[in-house]
Design brief:
13 helices; DNA-binding; Rossmann fold; alpha/beta; about 350 residues; homodimer
DNA sequence: CTCACTTATGGAAGCAGTTCCAAGGAAAAC
DNA sequence: GTTTTCCTTGGAACTGCTTCCATAAGTGAG
């Protein structure tokens, strides 16, 4: 490996400006105790020598890396949903001169905590100040992260099997009220036979189901949960559910899907069987993924602001770093029902 | 801001293991000059004290940040396409204990180079060793990056208005041969009237067009370029192009789209007009984005391995860092035509 | 038994900054 | 005119590591 060329240091700048090294440091950190002329002379020397302070050296002394890690915790690829969260994190962070490291984590829900291999960034010390956890989070991962005593904030909608008694900073959005409002909207359009399609063993889909059920109960309507066996994916789950919806009597006039992928699968399979959305059956989704707009007609769905999630995660993490002893908090972001073309008046 | 608790240092470990600090360093860097017993004693002390070496301190001495920045250069959100590239970068990097910083860049093609605002990470010195540039790259950005003398590799398919004489490390994929093979496939299925739909003012779409034209010429077929005015997006471009394809005489039996989004727009608009894919018209795309599989039937398209792009970028960047004077190189990755359901035999 | 050559180890110096304390000088107070 | 105070300023000491040099101990040859 060839040598990296020596860079200008603070001492050379000091010599060039005929001042002491302390003065340079003071100018760099814009602490006020420097006279006008001296500051001007120093800045001129900095400019002339093309000096850029070494970030590492400062970090040692400051004991702050000014860097956080966005850790994507499952084997999924960087899905658009999480990509948008990452964007929110980065955009908020860069405004505050904070840096964002991206790392991926490979683990299975059943690995014992000690067995989880952490990415290189977490094996060093001082590289990052804190962690933003995204992706599906199982208890063993939480244990593992806690064991390294690194401040973190979790995007908690995809947390699985972790009780309410668990204490950590988390940001999520409102599954329950999301489907509650979506279902009310559908009911408001005159529908009476509305089914809900999702695998409610996922906590977040369970919460969405409860929102749907609440809306049905309010209107004294019967709730119906549609599931399907051994789906390959959520889209496949939707496809397989379509038949079950059609075979029920009385025939449902609307379906609330647990997420957009299920809605997509449903839509696709229904269309193949000659059932038109929304003419024959209305449909709503959840998440507002890119697919929602690509569908034809575009899907009415529950929007969650992914960038806001990222932003809020970053904000909370910074608060945590400034106040390590602050009690843990949990922020639930609101959702918004977006009306597009898949719900019709009956 | 509360103080961060003092962490164990190398000197404490040295005391605990009754050895010198040099020995600790030697163990950490696994240089061989340490006896079995001493190494064991040191490792034991490290474990007992929960010592994690401070990354910053090492970096100062090593003059290497062991970190690169993935810089997304346009105003687009982190699109799945680039998200996958980032994944490739990260996955290759983490295997080599390198870290990946994510940063976004906001600039317009017409800002003068000096006017481009670089993200915080590029304003410090020593934070990163090099840069991976993705997104749409205009000459002014290239100028700006060169001005800070930071080694970089560009994902060059989306480079606009930069001549061949330009020298920098780049990774791209084979636009020309991609459509060449795709078009040959379509011709092989018996099609004779095949149109190409794209805005060829984009260099990469122009190259794809040339690939298509080459295949047509080989078979003594007439090439037809379909474009449309003021599209809002590529999908919109496709939608607007559909009418133009249908109104031509003789009617085309197949269309090659410049990318999957155009293909999607085409498909959607054709379907609305009662024209079925592939029964009435065959269709192929380019890129193999997520939409391709979601279409019904799924789109036959040209696949590019996004993770491989990321991996190759990272690999080239590391080579560049090890050999700063090496001549610039350009790597073109092959593409693969994936047959799904949108091309039929005539 | 001595000498040359390895191999292992301790720790000072150094990296590029920040911090803090002492000191110089000017202005203000006495 | 002297003392006090305030504002600047210089630079030693420090951060947590790596590197290198000197030394110690061990090994084999002569």
């Amino acid at each position: 490996m060839e040598a990296v060329p020596r860079k200008t240091t603070i001492r050379e700048v000091a010599r060039a400006a005929s001042v002491g090294i302390g003065t340079i440091s003071r100018v760099l950190n814009s602490s006020s105790q420097v006279s006008r002329e001296t500051r001007a002379r120093v800045l001129e020397a900095i400019r002339r020598l093309g000096f850029r302070p070494n970030a590492q050296a400062r970090r040692i002394l400051k004991r702050r890396a000014e860097m956080v890690c966005f850790l994507l915790s499952n084997r999924d690829f960087l899905h658009p949903f999480h990509a948008r969260i990452l964007q929110g994190v980065e955009s908020y962070a860069s405004g505050l001169k904070q840096h964002v490291l991206f790392a991926a984590l490979h683990y299975s829900p059943r690995t014992p905590p000690d067995g989880i291999d952490l990415p290189p960034v977490l094996q060093e010390h001082g590289l990052i100040d804190g962690l933003i956890l995204a992706g599906t989070i199982y208890p063993n991962l939480l244990r593992r992260i806690e064991s390294i005593h690194m401040p973190f904030v979790a995007f908690s909608n995809n947390v699985v099997g972790i009780g309410d008694e668990e204490q950590f900073d988390q940001v999520g959005f409102d599954d329950f009220n999301g489907t509650l409002h979506a279902t009310r909207h559908v009911i408001g359009k005159g529908h009476r036979h509305i089914v809900f399609a999702a695998d409610v063993s996922y906590p977040w889909l369970r919460r969405r189901f409860e929102g749907y059920r609440q809306a049905m109960r309010e209107n004294k309507l019967k709730h119906v949960l549609i599931t399907s066996r051994n789906p390959q994916s959520f889209v496949d789950f939707g496809q397989k559910s379509a038949g079950r919806i059609l075979s029920r009597q009385p025939r449902a006039t609307a379906a609330v899907a647990g997420n957009d992928e299920i809605a997509y699968g449903l839509w696709r399979s229904l269309r193949r069987q000659g059932v038109k959305v929304p003419d024959d059956i209305s449909l709503v989704g959840f998440d507002d993924r890119e697919e929602a707009v690509l569908m034809d007609p575009p899907l009415s769905t529950v929007r969650v602001d992914k960038e806001e999630i990222g932003e809020t995660c970053m904000k909370m993490l910074l608060e945590r770093l400034h106040h390590p002893r602050m009690t843990f908090s949990q922020r639930i972001l609101p959702t918004e029902f977006v009306i597009r073309g898949t719900v019709r008046q009956v």
